[in-house]
Every structure is written in C-alpha cells, then in structure tokens.
TrEMBL record:
GO terms for molecular function: cadmium ion transmembrane transporter activity; ferrous iron transmembrane transporter activity; zinc efflux antiporter activity. Gene3D superfamilies: Cation efflux protein transmembrane domain, Cation efflux protein, cytoplasmic domain. Its main location: membrane. The chain crosses the membrane at residues 40-58, 74-92, 112-131, 152-170. It comes from Jannaschia pohangensis. The keyword Membrane applies. Residues 206-283 form the Cation efflux protein cytoplasmic domain. It is found in: Cell membrane. This is Protein p34. One of its GO terms (cellular component) is plasma membrane. GO terms for biological process: intracellular zinc ion homeostasis. It is a multi-pass membrane protein. Belongs to the cation diffusion facilitator (CDF) transporter (TC 2.A.4) family.
Length: 295
C-alpha cells in the first residue's frame, strides 16, 4: 500500500472510529467516553493534515525549493502533536465537569462493547501506519500511528474506569479515569512535537546510521585517501549526506568522478532516498581525521 493510500485510509478509519465512539457516548452518557470521542475528532483532523503534507512532500524539487518539499511532513507531525495536546485539555475540562456532578451511566455494557470495536479497529490501523510509515520513512504516518496508539490506551483506560465505576458504584471514577488518560495523551503529544521539531532543525541521523555511512564510504572510496567533515540531516524520506573527499594529487578528474559515483551509488543502496554531495579536495587538504580510506 502506498503512502498516499495509507493517508487516505486513515481518514476513512478515523470517521468510522469517531462514529462508533460517539454512539458509545450516546448510549451511556459517560464523560470518559465523551472524552474518548473528542480525541477521535482530532484523529480525523490530523489524518487530513497528514494527507495534505504527504502530497506536498511528494512534489519534486523546483526553483523555489531546490532541496525538495520533504519537510512538509514534519510540519504535519508538529500540528498533530499540538492538536493532541489540545484534545487532552478538552478532556481535562470534561473530567472537571464530571467531578462536580458525577452521574450513573446508562447501559454501560452496551456502550463498552461498541467502544471496544472502535478500539480494536484503531489498534490494527495504528500498527499498519507505524510499520508502513517507518518502512517508507514518513514522519507524518508514524506520528499518525503513534497518535492512534495513544487513542487505544485512552479507550482501554476509559473501559477500566467504567467497569470499576459500575462494580463499586463510585461514579466519580468515570471522570477520574478520563483525567488520568488525558495526562498520558499530553505526554504522547509532547513526544511527537519534540521528534518533529528535531527534523525541522536538521537533526543528524542516528549514531547507528552514521556508523553505517562511515563504513560504506570507507569500503567504496578506494583510490581516495580520506573523507572528512561528514555531515548528515534527515527530512522526511530523504537523508542528506555531504562530506569532503581527499584524493592523491595525481588523480585525474575522471578518476575522482568515478570514485564519487561509486560512493554515491553505495550510499543510495544503503539509504533508499539518500541525497549525496561530495566535495573533492587535493592531497594537501588531508586532516588525518574522519573516515580514513584503507590502502
């Protein structure tokens, strides 16, 4: 399934889950279930945001955006994190009202059954989005999937609260559980915003990926002497890599170009959408640091 189809699927699943959760609230009158439905409205809104971001990110580079539009997905993830936080604040508001006036629930068993159907649907789709998003290096899809995971946790917590309220008769447990779950949602939103801001700030690749890049350069740079000033950053599906490659003084332009082509091809095999820039330097620019090419 393509990235675009996954984004469209999120919208359809979001509407289905929202309808089920709204029905569960209508059946029971539960504050916690209302809070759960409120979060699902955010799911639908953020699914639309992810779809728009993915379409923009897929556009090729142009005169105004010579490095492409990859970062559009990070903007979507930031918006999604902010909306998750807003949803948590709305849940806190509903929970507070429930604390002031706790009421018995109508048909809790039927309401929970409907809500659990929505929870299972959300859980399955969250797994699809996270695995598919990571495979395609799509921050928007991964963020959407993590948001759904928080939604699943919300629904489980809500179910526990309602069951305890029914068993004990302490109806205040209904809004209490809504407040507890809202704290978890706040934390989830913060993590999504933090990760996305890292991408917008040209955060480097992970240490493991950087090690793999160094090993690839060393293995494919035969004929050169060293590679230094290696820099990396990621933007959506793209990974930007640039470094200086020192070659012996008697290396021809053709030979240097062949070495660079070999390194670039290997890096693109390592990272599907690698954007590689290599600055060739003569022997006197040696720093005896960075990636030392074996003889």
């Amino acid at each position: 399934m393509t990235t675009l189809k996954l984004a469209i699927g999120s919208i359809l699943v979001g509407f289905a889950v929202l309808g089920l959760k709204a029905a569960a609230y209508w059946i029971t009158g539960s504050v916690a279930l209302l809070s759960d439905a409120l979060e699902s409205t955010v799911n639908v809104a953020t699914a639309f945001a992810a779809l728009i971001a993915i379409r923009i990110a897929a556009k090729p580079a142009d005169a105004d955006h010579p490095f492409g539009h990859h970062k559009a997905e990070f903007f979507s993830a930031v918006i999604e994190g902010v909306m998750i936080i807003v949803a948590a604040l709305l849940i806190f508001r509903e929970a507070f009202q429930g604390f002031l006036d706790p009421v018995p629930l109508d048909a809790p068993v039927e309401g929970l059954a409907v809500n659990m159907v929505a929870t299972v649907l959300n859980g399955v789709w969250a797994w699809v989005l996270i695995t598919g998003g990571r495979r395609r290096k799509s921050p928007a899809l991964v963020a959407d999937g993590k948001h759904l995971v928080s939604d699943v946790l919300t629904s489980v917590g809500v179910a526990v609260g309602i069951v305890l309220a029914v068993v004990t008769g302490w109806w205040v447990l209904d809004p209490l559980m809504a407040a507890v779950v809202a704290v978890n949602i706040l934390w989830s939103g913060w993590k999504i915003v933090k990760d996305s801001v890292g991408g917008l700030m040209d955060e480097a690749v992970s240490e493991q990926t950087l090690t793999d890049i160094r090993k690839t350069i060393a293995a494919e740079a035969g004929g050169a002497m060293e590679a230094h000033d290696l820099r990396t950053r990621h933007a959506g599906v793209a990974t930007f890599i640039d470094f200086h490659l020192v070659v012996p003084g008697d290396t021809t332009v053709f030979q240097a170009h062949e070495i660079c082509d070999r390194i670039e091809a290997a890096l693109k095999e390592l990272l599907d959408d690698a954007k590689v820039t290599i600055h060739v330097e003569p022997e006197h620019k040696l720093k005896h640091a960075g990636v030392i090419v074996p003889d």
